[in-house]
Structure formats: C-alpha cells, structure tokens
Amino acid sequence: MQRFREPEPQWDQHRPIGHPRPRESRRPDTQVKAKSPPHVQSSDGLRAIVQQKLREDVNLRGYGLEANVIDNVARVQGVVDTLAEKLYIRELVTSIPGIEGYEDGVSISTDGAITDELVKMEISEELDTHPASNGNVGVEVCDGTAYLMGKVPSEEAEAELIRLASSARGVIQVISQQRIDPELGGP
C-alpha cells in the first residue's frame, strides 16, 4: 500500500512562487490532499508512543534513549551497557502496533575498563552454574565478540546460553558454535 507523501520543503525551494509541482493543477481549488486512514498513526504520534515506552521501561529509562519514527520505521539512538539491552529495545519497539520497521542506532558502552579476559571470566562463571551448559560449553572472547563452543541438549538450551552471554557487560556480539546433542538431555 503506497501512501501519498508531500515532498519535503527543501526540494521546492528552487521553484518560482506560484509554480506548480509536477502533475499538479495550476488552479489551487483542484488540489486534493491525501488523508491518512483514521486507523493509521502519524509519525509524530508513533514517535511519542515509542519514546514513552522507552522512558517508562524500568530497564531502559536511565539511558536517555531517543526515538524517531519516519514512515512507520522507528529509529532508536543512545548507549546501553549490554547486548541483551540492545536486543530488548528492538523487541520492545517492534511490538508497538503501527511500527513496521526498526533501524538500530544503539551502541554498547564498554567504558574502556572491561577487557576480553574479564568478559570471558564473567560468562564462564555463568555458564558453569547454568544447567543448560552442564559443563559442556566454553567461551572465547575477542574484541567484545563472545564465541560459545561445545555441546548442548537442545536448541532451547542453545538460545538460553546465547541470552546469558548477551547479558555480560562488554559483549557486543555472540556467535554460537554450539552443537545440538540430544543425548546430553538424559533419557
């Protein structure tokens, strides 16, 4: 479904005053403005809704994230501490009715004090205590990218360990090199 969209004013600055736009009548009384159907939110209305969701969310309100919506595509900008928070923002925003797309402008801050070794140690401690890992999954970290390696009993267990690694500070990406081995799940 294509919607009528007025050209942006800067594109009309080169036209002499009173000169019609292409495919426009020269008589002002014949101009017809397209109206949005009542069920479609304006970009400003959607922007306000997205911004309100970000400000009210207990996990995100302290970050001062900024949202914009153009043609029902939301763009969120700001800085968060973890990859899990960045992924959560996408999930939250795309669940809003009327939002048709998402552009990610969110960065992850590592504050410079977080090294790959510290990230590896934090993820390893979590993996060692998580039942889905069962001691069969390890991690390597290189430039903020966590590589999970080993065997897990199911795709659900793999997804849970990816989520767990995503919540560590300093992780900017998680790559799973885990293999599914149903025999690890027991009888």
Summarize this, please?
The chain is an alpha/beta fold and 187 residues long.
Number of strands: 6
CATH first level of the largest domain: Alpha Beta
Cα distance spanning the termini: 52 Å
The tally of domains stands at 2
Spatial sequence of strands, sheet with the most strands: 1-2-3
Report the biggest beta sheet as strand number plus sense, adding barrel if it closes: 3 strands, mixed
Using the CA coordinates, give the radius of gyration.
Answer: 24 Å
Order of helices and strands: HHEEHEHEEHE
Shape: elongated
Mean pLDDT: 81
Strand proportion, as a percent range, falls in: 15-25%
Low-pLDDT parts are: 7-16, 18-39
In CATH terms, what is the fold-level topology of the largest domain?
Answer: Histidine-containing Protein, Chain: A
Helices, by number, come to 5
CATH architecture of the largest domain: 2-Layer Sandwich
Structural class: alpha/beta
Q: What's the helical proportion of residues?
A: 25-40%
By oligomeric state, this entry counts as single chain
